Each structure stands twice: as C-alpha cells, then as structure tokens.
Amino acid sequence: MREAPPPDLDRVYVLTDSGIQQLKGGSTTLGEAALRLLVLIDGKVTLAKLVKHLHGVAEAEINDIVAALVLESHIRPASADAAKPADDLGALDFFSRESVDAASDDEKKEQEFAHSLQEAQNTAMRLKQSGCYVRIARRPAQKRPPLGGSGYAVLVVENDANLSSVTRKFLEMEGFSPRIAATGAELVAELRKAPPPDLVLLDVALPDADGFQVLATIRKHPTLARLPVILLTARSSKEDVMRGLALGADGYVTKPFELDVLIRAMKSVLGLDAPGAPRS
User: Fold this and answer.
1) How many structural domains does the chain have?
2) What was the pLDDT predicted at 25?
3) Which domain CATH number covers 215?
4) Are 181 and 63 in the same domain?
5) Does 195 lie in the same domain as 126?
6) Element of type H or E holding 93
7) How many CA within 13 A on the CB side of residue 197?
8) Roughly how many angstroms between the first and final C-alpha of the chain, as a whole number?
9) DSSP category for residue 80
10) Residue 5 domain-assigned?
C-alpha cells in the first residue's frame, strides 16, 4: 500500500478530473472536511491560506486530508500556466487606436460588437467562477434500511409549488414515497409523524425558516441527528456550499438540476448505489 506523500501547504493546487468527479459526480466517499477543501481549491491560492477556512479541523488532520487527496490523485500542484486567472483570455485586442481611426462606420460597428462580445464572455466566466455548481452526495458505509419497513419515504421541503409537484411525481415513478412540506412549520409537522422520513430534500430558501438553520437543528436533535439530508438550493457560492457541508449535509445539489441527477444523489446517500446493494 502506498504511503501518502508529505503535503506542501505552500503550493497552489488544482482539482484533477478525479477531484471534480468527487464534487460533480453525484457520489463520493470523502469526508466532510475533505469535501470542504475541494470546494475551496481554485488553482490560485496556496493550501496554507485555504485551510484556514476549515474551522474546527485540527492541523494534524489537515495534513492527513491533503496528503490523502494528493495520494488519491484528487488534487495536484498547479503549473505556472494553471495558476493564471482563468478569465485571462490573453487580453485579445479587438481594436487598437490605429485601426479605430482608420475604420469605416461598418467596421467600427463590427469592432464594437466584437468588444462587447468579449466583455460578455469575460463577465459570464467571472460569474461562473464566483459560484460553485455541485451535486455532492456522500455514500454511507452500508445501505440504509427503510425506517418504515417497506420502501423509502422522502420528505421534499420545497417552497416552489411547481418544482415540488414535479419532484413528487418523479419520485413516485422511481419507487419512492414522497411527503411534501413547503414551510418550516410543515417540515416540523412531517418530522413528528411516525415513522420519520428516510431522507430529506431540503430547500434552503423557505418563507419562514432558513434551511441552514433547519439543518443545524436537525443535527443537534437526539432522534433526528442521523437523518440524511440533501440540500437543494440556488445558493451556489463556495461559502454556502462550505456552510452546508460543515453543518452536516449528506448532499448538496445546486439548482437548476436534472431530476435523474437528483435520483442518483439520493441513491448514493441511502447507499443504494453501492456494489451489490439491492434496488429500492
């Protein structure tokens, strides 16, 4: 068995295809702290600066996490080119002063259009980089049996009535038993029913509650602490993803999402996609 190399926290690292798969593949066996670090890695900032944001993680544990990520080829040192800002497209000069002065009106319009297009592309790229579009789902060590004895009950907590309805029908088609809540109050009422749901799909933006706070409350509850929760949210900043993972989310799927992607995440969290696991 290979030993993990000592980590170099003073270097800049980038995600490999394997690391990206851990964040966007719909299933991962990595721990919460390792996932939080993967979310932060952007190919621009050294690991020493990034790990300062892993609150609650001991320094010795950080070294082990980084070493394991390198050993498993989820991250690698950035090359000089990779360390450049990703939105640096080479400062394409669509029109210099000389060409503008000599251009006809039609040529000026074409040049202005090209310049506008370039600005739009750069802006779109920066916006994309500011978010963190993920579909993380942590697979348990073994399949979670349904609490009701037959079939998996899934509590869909969604403020959007149309999305809630579509999700409910899709879950029924996939063999799950959906239960619906649109507010924090309705969520509490559903959680008090016996048996409790096997999985919660939790919208972060509820009219009477903050989904992150709801998750924190669930994780502190003596009976519900181990209840699997997947956050479904349009809040895709790295800070939001980090917060969700740190609070104990089993999955984090950013909106908009495809329903088959959601199903794969659910099966991962329930352990239904593990080798040899029976179908739901």
Assistant:
1) 3
2) 81
3) 3.40.50.2300
4) no
5) no
6) none
7) 25
8) 35
9) T
10) no
38 plus 152 within the same structural domain: no
Opening angle at CA 219, ends 272 and 169, nearest 5: 45
Residue 4 included in any domain: no
pLDDT at 92: 32
pLDDT for 236: 81
212 Cα distance to chain centroid: 14
Q: pLDDT tens, 96-127?
A: 344 344 456 666 656 655 555 555 555 445 44
Range of the domain at 155: 135-270
pLDDT at 8: 84
Question: What's the pLDDT at 106?
Answer: 60
Is 143 found in the same domain as 67? no
Three-class HEC string of 195-217? CCCCEEEEECEECCEEHHHHHHH
d(CA 224, CA 232): 19
Nearest to 229 by CA among 239, 213, 237, 238: 213
Q: Rounded to 5, what percent of the chain is helix, strand, coil?
A: 45, 15, 40
User: Do 253 and 230 meet the contact criterion of CB atoms below 8 Å apart?
Assistant: yes
Q: Average pLDDT of each block of 10 consecutive residues along the chain (280 residues)?
A: 70 93 87 92 89 86 92 88 41 36 57 58 50 84 87 95 94 95 95 93 93 95 94 88 93 89 93 64
